[in-house]
Amino acid sequence: MTAIARRWSDIETLSSCSYIDLSMAHKKVDYNNEENRKMILKEFRRVLKDILQPHHDDEFLLRWLRARDFDIIKSEKMIRESFKFRKKIGADTILTEAYQLPEVFQKYPVTYSLGLDSENSAVRLFMPGICDYKGYVSSLKMMDLMKLLVYFLEYDLNLLQQRKEKIGNVDTKSTFILDFTEFELKKFYDKSVINAGIQLITMYQDNYPETLKAAYLVNVPSYFNWIFNIFKPFLNAVTLSKIKVYKTDEWQDEVKKTLDPAVLPAFLGGTKTDPDGNPKCLTMINWDSKIDPSFYLKQNMLQGTEEDESMKTTTVQQRSVFQLPVEVKKPGALLKWVFKTKDYNIRFGLFYKKDEKSKQEEILPVDNVDCQVIPEENEFICEKTGIYILHWDNSYSWMTAKQLLYKAEVEDPNEANNN
């Protein structure tokens, strides 16, 4: 096999230069073939030799190869980006004293390890039905929410690693049971909650590929498909194939084939109870999960609301528009805005002109925004200097004026890049 050195076309996004055998780039292989297996693993290990540690065995490398359909170039890019993320978030020390679980989680936990099943897979229970989503996103920054999820994932992987050291080969897979008992749509229907959910899903798939054995979503409400459809576009095909949704208790028979009923709470069909026989396992689960506002971060709690002192107010009269010009002096700056109306929706768009004398150009088309319930928050990277115009349109309303709360700011390019 002739080897031809090749540099990645997108190598500038990586911290080091990697060269691979051209005949193996983007190559689809039959991994069941032993020779192919040895060949691709050897090549993948070679191009990653500058970052791999002794504990990164073949099974670890296989996770990344499978996640990118055995494309070495894409797999290398994925794993290098993940290593950068792990360093930034402190994943390698998160199970040590270097990290402390947030106080809000210690008082209002929403996930619990159930140990290992008979197939040596980690089993974790999540309680999305009682979770105070808005309370969590109001109490923790996004990075802290990610650290919290990383802590749970690393905890389960550590359980698997300990088991692997005892009995040998263990497939590093986890089973998630998500109980939607007592779920209420009003607790979930919030833009900041949905955005946080999307970011956490993306982080999980990008940094823990091929670690999901199955996810059982149980006791789901009748309107669950509406919720699930929000997140489907952000779930890859492999993850989707492992998600099983149940409105009844049919899932229990499948789970109990491998999971000891003694570790499964009685309210989920197991035999685990409190010492006094209570099936709700109050010594394990805090069902009173409404987070006290004293845990809220002020900037999270007030953003975009009437209590946010940085918000300005105006009334957009019927049959009229309101425009806010914002000058951008540096290319690459980030224009950020948030707005809310008190009772009715309004139309919004974004325009640009080079200077006061120039003709106005449309950037974001004017469209209806239902911001009377949830503040509308967005941002735009300004590649050109000039005047950007935030445009609120109430010209379609013949009778109703709209009370508007709004805020806009320009973030310096350097600060935007760091963020």
UniProtKB/TrEMBL annotation:
Origin organism lineage: Eukaryota, Metazoa, Ecdysozoa, Arthropoda, Chelicerata
Domain GOLD: 298-410
Name used for this protein in its record: SEC14-like protein 4 like protein
GO cellular component: cytoplasm
Domain CRAL-TRIO: 101-276
Organism: Argiope bruennichi
